[in-house]
Amino acid sequence: MAETHAIVREHAPDGSKGRYVIRRDGAEAELTYTVVSPTEVTADHTGVPDAFRGTGAGRALVERLLADARAEGFRVVPLCPFVIGLARRHPDWADVFG
Question: Out of 10, 16, 66, 92, which residue is the most buried by the measure of CB atoms under 10 Å away?
Answer without folding.
Answer: 66
